[in-house]
Specification:
Blueprint lengths: L1 H22 L8 E8 L9 H16 L7 E8 L4 H14 L4 E3 L4 H13 L4 E4 L15 E3 L4 H15 L5 E6 L2 H13 L2 H4 L2 E6 L7 H8 L5 E5 L2 H13 L5 E4 L6 H8 L8 E4 L13 H13 L8 H20 L5 H8 L28 E7 L4 E9 L3
Parallel strand pairs: 1-2, 1-3, 3-4, 4-5, 6-7, 6-8, 8-9, 9-10
Antiparallel strand pairs: 10-11, 11-12
Helix pairs in contact: 2-12, 3-4, 5-6, 8-9, 9-10, 12-13
Length: about 400
């Protein structure tokens, strides 16, 4: 009897110690994990705010299903208006006020640039951020950061391969956003082409605070370029496509992945104005008939009708946000009962090749101790006026 009593007391003591240990894990209780994020729900890049709305909707679905491992996900998402000072303010609020376990999926290169050193100094996991800036994938500099968007530099190199092979004698005009997004893309593209082709590149930048980029497009036309690359955000990419059409400039247009949304870019530009344009893709296209009966797309349609009713299902930003939600789900499942910041980071760098249902077959999320990037592959596709048609093989940054 004394042995049984001792065993019972020992068991209760163990359970109490587990409860106390769990209580000491920042942002985690027995019933909840608190996660923070920042998105441009307003401002010049507000189209990207729909990524946040997609993520929020997916988390709502997970919570309706009981959460992950018995815990609800308390996702706190603030608006920074795509302004770095505001991003700093909101991030500090999440860390020091809300005391979140981690920052997940924070959107935008400017905001992440303004907060990455702070978060790493605080040893707060800064995971699967929505920026393709190459610097964030360097875990020697930023050991608590992983990326959830294809690197702009990787994309620039892939486009350089395509242009070099298919337009070896072309003059190239590049319009780029004057931040890490555009600069990484431009630098990688120049490095990826032959010296002869590099000498025939004309590049002009724009600031996100500018109302229009019409003058840059007019000036780029005077270069006589046969290929027009656009490395920017949806609002300005749409303006560039529209202006090129208005001034009767018909080069081969190529636009970066983050600005290839039908709803956010192609429709505002005018769907007929960019026929033949080329971009890259990670995810399936909602209007591509070959995915009409695809299980992943059918489930996405049902999810969208319930959790994003009234939103534009053709806006790829929502799909990307939902896929971010799937990565978050995978991360939390891998963590099991250990939601310490140390394990969150460890598991973020330990995702074995995963084929998510909305990703193009063959394109997988895969991280490791030597790779902080969730996505390292890209499929090229061509705009036909109604949707994007994939062509060629899948490119990989790890080849």
């Amino acid at each position: 009897m004394r042995i049984m009593r001792f065993s019972l007391f020992a068991l209760l003591g163990c359970l109490a110690s587990v409860s106390v240990a769990q209580a000491n894990v920042t942002g985690v209780t027995n019933n909840e994990i608190k996660i923070g994020s920042v998105f441009p729900f307003s401002g010049p890049a507000s189209a990207f705010g729909n990524v946040g709305k997609g993520l929020i909707a997916y988390v709502r679905m997970l919570n309706d299903q009981g959460g992950i491992n018995g815990r609800q996900i308390n996702l706190i998402a603030y608006d920074d208006g795509y302004q770095p000072p505001k991003a700093v303010e909101q991030t500090r609020k999440l860390v020091e006020g809300d005391e979140v376990a981690m920052i997940f999926g924070q959107m935008g290169t400017p905001g992440n640039s303004a907060t990455v050193k702070y978060l790493n100094a605080k040893k707060v996991p800064h995971l699967f951020i929505s920026s393709g800036a190459a610097k964030f994938a360097n875990f020697n500099d930023f050991p608590f950061t992983t990326t959830g968007l294809l690197s702009y530099a990787v994309e620039g190199r892939i486009y350089a391969k395509y242009v070099g092979k298919n337009f070896p004698n072309a003059k190239v005009a590049i319009l780029y956003q004057n931040d890490d997004l555009g600069k990484d893309f431009l630098g990688a593209f120049k490095e990826g082409v032959s010296s002869g082709l590099a000498e025939k590149i004309t590049a002009l930048s724009y600031e996100v605070a500018e109302p229009t980029i019409d003058s840059q497009v007019v000036n780029l036309k005077t270069s006589g370029a046969d290929v027009f690359l656009i490395a920017g955000s949806p609002k300005f990419t749409a303006q560039a496509i529209r202006k090129a059409y208005e001034i009767n400039w018909r080069p081969q247009i190529m636009l970066n992945f983050v600005s290839s949304s039908i709803a956010a870019t192609m429709v505002p530009a005018g769907v007929e104005k960019a026929i033949g344009a080329i971009s890259g893709a990670l995810l399936k296209d909602m209007v591509d008939e070959r995915w009409a009966n695809d299980q992943g797309i059918l489930e996405y349609r049902a999810f969208f009708a319930k959790y994003l009713s009234g939103a534009d299902i053709l806006d790829g930003n929502y799909m990307y946000g939902v896929t971010q939600g799937m990565i978050l789900e995978q991360l939390l499942k891998q963590c099991g009962s250990d939601l310490s910041r140390e394990n969150l980071l460890k598991q973020a760098r330990s995702i074995q090749p995963q084929q998510f249902p909305l990703a193009i077959p063959g394109i997988k999320v895969n991280t490791s101790a030597n790779n902080s990037m969730a996505w390292t592959q890209l499929q090229l596709r061509r705009w036909n006026g109604k949707g994007w048609e994939p062509f060629g093989e899948i490119f990989s940054a790890l080849d």
